[in-house]
Amino acid sequence: MALDDLYRDVILDHYRRPRNRGAPEAAGVVVEGVNPLCGDQIKLWLKIEGDTVTEAAFEGHGCSISQASVSMMTEAIKGKPVSEVERIISDFRGMMLDGAEPNPDRLGDLVALEGVKRYPVRIKCAVLAWNTLRLGLAERTRFHGQQVVLTHSET
Ligand code: ZN
Fold first, then answer.
1. What is the residue extent of each domain of the chain?
2. Span from the CA of 50 to the centroid of ligand 1 (angstroms)
3. Spacing, Cα 87 to ligand 1 middle (Å)
4. 63 by DSSP, 3-state: which?
5. How close is the Cα of 89 to the center of ligand 1, in Å?
């Protein structure tokens, strides 16, 4: 099996069987992300306790790339310290937007999405979840017992 096929399988698997889908019981930060170009929509719930992302879950609809990317992202960040999550975001955005060589140790299966770069119009589909997450982390200090709801749009 060619490497490309293997990567496509990872993306399709997450699209068909999304991980961490559905609203968790309690999440301090809710971020809605939209990519009007493609019609992708996601809603991301984050629970951050101390310096750790203890919960990451989503709902959404849109193309396979946008939905696989957010599913894979929740798996990659759940249970990790915020500082490490920020490094993963930086690595992923670097791979997709700046042509940086991906770090497989840090990105794992997420490297599968690198192939999307061959279709520049779809890059926003892949980074939607990540820019949505970035906004949620940046604004997390606004959470003081009341759920904070934010909106990100790819333009
Ligand atoms: Zn899309």
1. 3-153
2. 33
3. 24
4. coil
5. 19
